[in-house]
Design a protein that fits this description.
With about 270 residues, the protein is α/β, with parallel strands linked by helices. The protein has one domain (about 1-270): Aldolase class I (TIM Barrel, Alpha-Beta Barrel). It is about 30% helix and about 15% strand. The chain has ten helices and nine strands. The chain has helices spanning about 35-45, 65-75, 90-100, 120-125, 130-140, 160-170, 205-210, 225, 255-260, 260-270; strands at about 1-5, 50-55, 80-85, 105-110, 145-150, 175-180, 215-220, 230, 240. A nine-stranded mixed β-sheet has the order 7-6-5-4-3-2-1-8-9, with helices on one face. Helix 3 packs parallel to helix 5 (about 130-140). The protein starts with a strand and ends with a helix.
Length: about 270
């Protein structure tokens, strides 16, 4: 069973569709939280977890103030994924991370990189493209397996092939598309509050047929639709899915929830 855990609701980015901010400009009314490591330890033991994904509904795992403690707790799992915008921490830290988890059956870091230097930060506001590339390069050179995760929009769709080529040149393991763009009809610049024109891309079937090599380019899917899995929020709440993050697992039957049509319908509508 997989555990999808959000170890913090803190983040350095201001992505317009993220619920932690007001369409990119200013924070919503919430208090940043960091998961108590003892809760992660208890969850891993209670549900016999051997596969962990660190990602976030609100936060980036690398922004957690107690990240080191959470990583130590994952030393004994078999598979670990970390999903991040990649612009936090120093290059040497990323190299050390690759060495730290080299013993696992599988360890991947998914870097969210939505274009080249001139387009990436249009959606992923507040992140540093050059720092991300430097961090990813150091992680890969140290033996780490990196995935380039790309959200296609109208403003970056012309760079898809350039990004694929760059990811291969840098040594990324593969290139992943987010299945649907995180489109929001209203978006603002995180510093000035000026409106942004965030427009979804128009999928090019010819591109899919000619360029999307299945062994390298893939479409990201929802973990909770693909595998038996649990979600652990930064508040310490264990639920069957990140969409059902207000219903404690103690109040539902886990086997029923995994096959519940209403919950699956919600996920399918979002993931496409």
């Amino acid at each position: 069973m997989w555990l999808n855990v959000e170890i913090t609701s803190r983040c350095n980015a201001w992505c317009p569709s993220c619920p932690r901010n007001n369409r990119g400009y200013g924070l919503t009314d919430f208090t940043p939280q960091d998961l108590d490591p003892s809760i992660l330890k208890d969850t891993i033991q209670r549900y016999n977890i051997f596969q962990v994904q660190m990602s976030g509904v609100l936060g980036d795992p690398c922004a957690a103030i107690n990240l080191h403690e959470h990583l130590e707790l994952c030393m004994g799992v078999k598979r670990l994924q970390i999903h991040t915008n990649g612009s936090l921490r120093k290059p040497d830290w990323w190299a050390n991370l690759a060495h730290q988890f080299a013993h696992l059956d599988q360890f991947d870091v998914w870097f969210g990189i939505d274009g080249l230097e001139d387009t990436h930060s249009y959606y992923r506001q507040g992140t540093d493209w050059n720092r991300i590339i430097e961090n990813a390069r150091n992680f890969i050179l140290a033996g780490g397996s990196a995935v380039w995760q790309f959200i296609p929009f109208k403003h970056n769709q012309h760079q898809i092939m350039d990004c694929i080529r760059m990811s291969q040149e840098l040594g990324f393991t593969r290139f992943e598309f987010v299945k649907n763009a995180r489109y929001t009809p209203v978006a603002y610049h995180y510093q000035t509050g000026e409106p942004l024109d965030i427009v979804p891309w128009k999928e090019d079937e010819k591109f899919n047929r000619v360029h999307s090599r299945k062994d390298f380019v893939d479409r990201k899917k929802c973990m909770h639709l693909e595998y038996p899995s649990l979600y652990l929020s930064a508040k310490g709440l264990v639920t069957p899915c990140c969409f059902l993050n207000t219903t404690p697992l103690s109040e539902v039957d886990i086997d029923t929830e995994f096959s519940n049509n209403n919950y699956r319908k919600t996920c399918l509508e979002w993931c496409g």
